[in-house]
Write a structure and sequence with these properties.
By secondary structure, this protein is an alpha+beta fold. It has helices spanning about 110-115, 120-125, 220-250, 265-280; strands spanning about 5-10, 20-25, 35-40, 40-45, 55, 65, 70-75, 100-105, 140-145, 150-155, 170-175, 180-185, 190-205, 205-215, 255-260, 290-295. Bound molecules: fe (ii) ion.
Length: about 300
């Protein structure tokens, strides 16, 4: 591969034959209907007599409740039903402790780009509590493939005050898997927190981003009210950058992807293509990601 990899801009085409987060399970209450739009389709979520979540729409999608979330399956071109259930993250307590969501204007892959771009954090989310672009330094991150994605191996976070909330000796491990599920395990001797960022296509031009947290420590439940405005602000920064990106889109004829900084997005594109091809050929997915150490300044 060359130093840069140019690719024609893809239309919004989230990968199919995968589970996406459609709602928070506790928001689907017995005797009530919750309407959600996913993949441009209307989901009518209800609980049946056994309390199971179902889609009561005319052309229902497969839905499943797991770890406090409602997942909807995006059928492939052949309309095949899911062969297995939604992904399991083993979030501490298996209960969603915190969720904040926002609607991002723009196609799915643009939202995925924001989730994977290493420069996104310090520039889009610069904040005194979180981190600022003034703390730029060269970083080397080790990645290994996982069954449906890749994992950035555990490391000690250096430039974020927010991690101090859970105490010292913190290790962070970040995973990404198709369709676009980013899991961030924050652990130290006494606490384990799972932060899950999910992207779900609402329609071809809108993507729902959710920031979800799982934890067990009662101490973290106390600080939860303070996390909300920070997270809300964080997601609004994502909405803002996506709005700017959409405004610039007509002027972007070709997209330029740069190694190593865009390697994660390049992997995403390759995994997505391989996933579609493996499904079309009814064979197992062969992860195109290879273990690598990537370097950039953020
Ligand atoms: Fe972001």
């Amino acid at each position: 591969m060359t130093d840069t990899e140019a690719s024609a801009l893809d239309p919004a085409c989230p990968p199919a034959s995968l589970w996406y987060v459609a709602d928070i399970a506790r928001h689907v209450r017995p005797g009530r209907e919750r309407v959600q739009t996913v993949f441009g389709r209307t989901l009518r979520l209800r609980r049946d007599a056994q309390g199971q979540v179902m889609d009561a729409g005319e052309d229902p999608l497969a839905v499943r409740e797991s770890e406090g979330l409602v997942w909807a399956y995006s059928p492939g071109p052949d309309g095949a039903q899911p062969a297995s259930g939604p992904p399991v993250f083993n979030g501490p307590g298996a209960k969603v402790r915190f969720v904040e969501e926002a609607l991002l204007p723009g196609p799915y892959d643009d939202a995925v780009y924001g989730l994977l771009d290493p420069a996104h954090g310090p520039y889009v989310h610069a904040s005194p509590l979180w981190r600022s672009s003034r703390t730029l330094r060269e970083k080397a991150k080790a990645y290994v493939p996982s069954p449906l994605g890749f994992t950035m191996q555990a490391h000690e976070p250096k430039n974020s005050a927010a991690y101090k909330l859970i105490g010292g000796g913190v290790q962070v491990e970040i995973g990404f898997q198709l369709p676009a599920l980013r899991s961030e395990w924050i652990t130290n001797r006494s606490n384990r927190v799972l932060g899950l960022t999910t992207l779900t296509p609402v329609d071809a031009q809108t993507t729902c981003i959710r920031q979800i947290f799982y934890w067990e420590s009662p101490l973290l439940s106390l600080i939860s009210p303070f996390v909300r405005p920070v997270t809300r602000n964080f997601l609004q920064q994502d909405v803002h950058i996506m709005t700017l990106r959409q405004r610039a889109a007509p002027f972007r004829r070709r997209e330029m992807l740069i190694r190593d900084a865009d390697q994660l997005f390049i992997w995403y594109r390759r995994m997505k293509a391989e996933w579609a091809q493996a499904n079309a050929e009814s064979r197992a997915f062969e992860n195109p990601v290879q273990a690598a150490t990537l370097r950039w300044r953020t």
